[in-house]
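INFO  loader      accepted 1 record
INFO  loader      residues=165
INFO  predictor   begin
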Amino acid sequence: MRPTKSVSQMTSHISKAERDARKEAEDQVVNNHTVPKVYDNLNKEERKVFHRLKKYNDNFTEADSISLNMVSMYIIMWSQLKEAHNELDIMDERLAGLERRITAIDKQINQHMTALCIPLNARLKLANDLAKTMIEEKKLEQMEGTKEFPVNPLDAVLEQVKAMG
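INFO  predictor   done
INFO  writer      dumping tokens
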């Protein structure tokens, strides 16, 4: 299945009502106009990284706060370990332990970076599904709104018979 596109990137021929519904759903789900919050326990360097990452994508929301904060912390940890690694001699026995820790932190960074990418795709898919639901609801409303029952001419005759009898 192909990834869902944003309404602004769609090139298919869709009706104005469908485009409006998709745009409204996307605004609710993707661009919910919240911003990621920085944790109080981040130090000055980690906060700088957090704000730099936040600038890279306008679609980050408050829901992305955890991953952004964790990535910020792990990036600083990784750089500190890398500095310590560079200071050691190649024959130093502590080098292997540092390399294992660097690799573990690398995996954590990748995990949280992936988590930051998934929410946008998931939000676009959710917005698409929400738009489909809204379109179906509007169609049902239109069908119910135009549903007028025709007057049966025999009803008038029946009323006259009841009135006479």
